[in-house]
Each structure stands twice: as structure tokens, then as C-alpha cells.
From TrEMBL:
PROSITE patterns membership: MDH
MF terms in GO: L-malate dehydrogenase (NAD+) activity
Family classification: Belongs to the LDH/MDH superfamily. MDH type 2 family.
Species the sequence originates in: Aeromicrobium camelliae
Catalytic site positions: 188 (proton acceptor)
Matching SUPFAM superfamilies: LDH C-terminal domain-like (SSF56327), NAD(P)-binding Rossmann-fold domains (SSF51735)
UniProt keyword terms in alphabetical order: NAD, Oxidoreductase, Tricarboxylic acid cycle
Protein name per its UniProtKB record: Malate dehydrogenase
Amino acid sequence: MSQSPVKVAVTGAAGQIGYSLLFRIASGAIFGPDTPVQLRLLEITPALGALEGVVMELDDCAFTTLDSVEIGDDPRHIFDGVNLALLVGARPRAKGMERGDLLEANGAIFTEQGRALNDVAADDVRIGVTGNPANTNALIALRNAPDIPAERFSALTRLDHNRAISQLAAKTGAKVGDIRRMTIWGNHSSTQYPDLFHAEVAGKNAADLIDDQAWIENEFIPTVAKRGAAIIDARGASSAASAASATIDAARDWLTGTPEGDWVSMAVASDGSYGVPEGVVYSFPVTCSGGDWQIVQGLEIDDFSRERMDATAAELIEERDAVGQLGLT
Ligand SMILES: NC(=O)C1=CN([C@@H]2O[C@H](COP(=O)(O)OP(=O)(O)OC[C@H]3O[C@@H](n4cnc5c(N)ncnc54)[C@H](O)[C@@H]3O)[C@@H](O)[C@H]2O)C=CC1
Ligand SMILES: O=C([O-])CC(=O)C(=O)O
């Protein structure tokens, strides 16, 4: 192992997602087997005792890729010099809540953490937001970090993307690995638009192959968009292992690149592509290379897709305005 260590901050490290995420990062799932990782774990003060227990377990795994672990409750200390910050820590929703209901509870966290990252993170920092409402939390963080380019922030819609791939594979009998060019447009919420019109199954257009608009509208889209709620109903707690896995997938592809001929879904600051207003963090199809992302351009958008893309943009604008009224940005 010759490379110098990468510093990775994880917030909410003693939570459910953290319990799965930390072990994957420590074992090399983002940076591979040759890059040592320094974990810097942020929690609120009352959770530091539980976090110490998680650190004992990390030690007990004897991961060759884990260089060091530091824990604390001060974002300015934990984020000092970090190259990657995964902002997971936030209150999860309970049964019957929409993710937007968490805006006020969680918005303040991302104001403080955006400011701290602005002041102390490494110059090359990338910031991935998993904590809900993820898109608007990312917007709050980036607005509070004026010295960090907005392109360095993204919110997690990779879980929705992976859910959509899994549903499409089950419907068509294809293998997950045969599916490419899936897209989640918009918000990580029930208004998101999982798009089969540009997805491919073994090189064939997914919507043409399925040839069943009713299934797309009445089964596929709602199943993907409401999967988080279905898991809360079934488990009594929100998705954790799958959310951690998607957080890893998203960070790995952002930093190491997307496969040739494929793309992934990432919620990023809109640049106006596809008529999505600037000033919101919206999920687009993106390709990544060298730690940067680019929105895939030139996809044809029909009326059905347009309507759904606009509806989820409208929800993000409402969230942005609500946050403005709370004085959070
Ligand atoms: N974007 C996505 O696809 C998904 C997002 N989520 C969201 O991820 C977040 C975390 O979920 P879980 O791990 O299940 O929740 P959890 O409640 O098990 O853990 C959250 C942790 O964050 C900590 N925390 C709270 N405020 C903090 C602060 N200011 N700084 C640092 N840590 C803080 C808490 O002490 C707790 O340990 C929730 O907002 C949840 O809704 C969950 C699944 C998927
Ligand atoms: O639904 C929730 O609240 C947790 C989440 O974001 C998901 O599972 O997609």
C-alpha cells in the first residue's frame, strides 16, 4: 500500500446507516485495496459513547486499508482537511411523514456543517449528502460554503437509481448487470421521476421492451418512488444497509469514474439543463471522470416525462422557499 491516506468524514456515524457504511469504507469499498483511509466520525455528544463501541468493532476487523479513526462532536475539528465528507447524520422520518417534514429539524445541521466545511475541509473536498431531505440539505450546505465550488456537493439519489434497476431487472428477467442508463430525475422524494424511456436492457430500450405504459405509470414509478416508505412500514425503521451501499456506490463512481457507455443518477446544483431551474439540487443523469461530474446532454424528453420532471422541480422550489422562510440559507 503505497498511496497517502484519504481523509473521509462521516456524520451520524453512530446511526443505522453508519453501522453499515463505516465498515464498507474502512475495507476499501470506495478507494480500493491500495488506498489507506483515515475515518473522521462526527456525532452529537450523547452518541459519542455508542460511537466508541463502533470504533472498537472497526479495530477488531483489522482492516488493512484503515489507517486511523478519530471521533468527535465538533464539525470544525472533524472536517479539518477532509477530502470526502459523507453527511448522513440527521433525524430519519417515521411512519406517515414525508421527507420534506424533516426540513426544519434537519436544516440547521446542514447550515452549521456547510460553514465548517467551508472553513476547514481540504481544497479538493467532495461532499455527498445522504441525510434527508437530501436535495435541500445539500442546497443549504452549499449555500453556506461560498468558497467551495457548488459542483463539489451532491445529494443521494443513487438508492432510488439502484431500486429502479432492481425493479426493471425483476420485470424483464434480465440481470442487474445488463441494465444501463437508468435515470432518476428530481427530488429524493415521492415526486421523483424514475425514467425508463432512456434506460436499456441488454442494449434494448427498456420502455420499448416492456411495451406497457400502464405498468410504467401504475407499478414501476410508484414502487420506486415509495420504496422508502414501504421499507419503513415493513422494518419499522428506514432503509439503512441499502442506503449505505448506495452512498458507497455514489462516492466511488464520483471519485473513480462511471463505466464507459453508462451513467448514474446524482442530485447536483442545476445549471438549467433540461429546463430545470437553477437554484435547486436536482437529480440528473451524469457521467463522472476524475472526480468531476457532467450532466448527460441531448436526451429527448416527451410530454409524459416533461410533466413529471416539472412536478418534482416544483417540489424542490417549494422546499427551497420554505428553507428561505426558516432563515436557513
Ligand atoms: N438519501 C437517501 O437515499 C436516504 C437517506 N436516509 C436518511 O439518512 C439519515 C440517517 O439515517 P439513519 O442512519 O437511519 O438515522 P439514525 O437516526 O439511525 O442515525 C442518525 C445519526 O445522526 C446523528 N446526528 C444527529 N444530528 C447530528 C449532527 N448535528 N451531527 C452529527 N450527527 C448527528 C444521530 O445522533 C444519529 O446517530 C436520515 O435523514 C434518513 O432519512 C435514509 C435512507 C436513504
Ligand atoms: O424513506 C426514507 O425516509 C428513508 C429514505 O430516504 C429511503 O429509504 O429512500
